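Is this the right way to post structure tokens for a design question? Let me know if I should format differently. Anyway, here goes:
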């Protein structure tokens, strides 16, 4: 009985102490909430109930005085810096092509060379084709192709300045991101270099001929892979640092007119009529050229014509006489 009473008393004391602790915690929470509410009321009394806090103003990009220009400027600068840093970290291979037509071929090539010199680039390879002539005013129908390497920072300015070379009829730009391939290859090279060091250490420690031959073979393979991958990295570095632009220059008699985006029915009829006249003139020119080319053969052609005519006439006379002879014989 005594033990049972002791147990009951112990349980009651535990329950009582727990209730006292809970009550004290509730009272302290109530006091802290009351203190916080009084602080909030004090702040609202100083700036008004509807006045936003400085933290909210800072989040919304406004200061207490309503100035937003400085905050916006700082945020824009941060975005620009992040974008510039991200682009600098990427490995992008830029390639482009430009087709240009010009009535002054030599001048166009000279201007291209001058633009290339200003951009700090160089000619990787070039080729020129067409008819050569000593007459400066004659049309030679020449063409040239240049493969240029331009520093990446001057890629866009060089394309923008290509209009002073001649009439641009076609442009294209592409960019290949080789960042992942580059860094994967770089990591592979580092791993192979660590392997090379370990193989050298093992080669110093081993003394058996069989092991030495095996290690040297593996070491040579590792060094070959390092050289091959390092060559790829250097190639990518060159392609990233110097963009490739292919420029085709065509010599023409007449610059291709720019087609208007909106044309009326009258414009279409006019264009078709002009095209027909151009075709007719080209045909007449061709006929004239053929006639001029046949002039040396004209006497021979005339002689053959009269000879054939004489032979046909003679043949007809023979046929007529043969038809008349049977009639005379019957008589």
């Amino acid at each position: 009985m005594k033990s049972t009473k002791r147990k009951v008393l112990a349980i009651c004391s535990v329950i009582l102490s727990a209730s006292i602790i809970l009550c004290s915690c509730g009272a302290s929470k109530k006091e802290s909430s009351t203190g916080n509410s009084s602080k909030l009321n004090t702040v609202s009394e100083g700036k008004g109930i509807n006045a936003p806090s400085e933290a909210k103003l800072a989040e919304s990009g406004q200061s207490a005085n309503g100035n937003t220009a400085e905050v916006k400027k700082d945020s824009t600068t941060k975005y620009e810096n992040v974008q510039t840093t991200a682009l600098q970290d990427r490995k992008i291979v830029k390639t482009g092509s430009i087709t240009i037509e010009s009535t002054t071929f030599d001048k166009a090539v000279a201007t291209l060379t001058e633009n290339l010199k200003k951009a700090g680039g160089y000619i990787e390879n070039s080729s020129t084709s067409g008819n050569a002539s000593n007459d400066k005013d004659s049309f030679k129908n020449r063409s040239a192709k240049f493969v240029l390497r331009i520093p990446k920072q001057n890629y866009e300015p060089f394309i923008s300045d290509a209009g002073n070379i001649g009439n641009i009829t076609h442009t294209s730009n592409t960019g290949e991101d080789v960042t992942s391939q580059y860094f994967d290859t770089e990591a592979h090279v580092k791993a192979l270099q660590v392997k090379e060091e370990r193989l050298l250490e093992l080669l110093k420690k081993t003394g058996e001929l069989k092991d030495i031959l095996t290690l040297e073979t593996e070491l040579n393979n590792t060094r070959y892979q390092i050289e091959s991958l390092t060559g790829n990295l250097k190639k990518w570095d060159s392609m990233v640092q110097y963009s490739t632009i292919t420029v085709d220059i065509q010599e023409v008699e007449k610059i291709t007119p720019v087609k208007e985006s909106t044309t009326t029915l009258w414009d279409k009829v006019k264009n078709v009529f002009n095209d027909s006249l151009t075709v007719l003139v080209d045909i007449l020119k061709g006929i004239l050229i053929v006639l001029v080319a046949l002039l040396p053969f004209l006497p021979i052609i005339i002689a053959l014509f009269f000879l054939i005519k004489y032979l046909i006439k003679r043949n007809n006379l023979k046929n007529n006489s043969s038809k008349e002879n049977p009639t005379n014989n019957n008589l």
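Format looks fine. Someone answered above. Worth noting: The mean pLDDT is 76. The longest strand covers residues 92-102.
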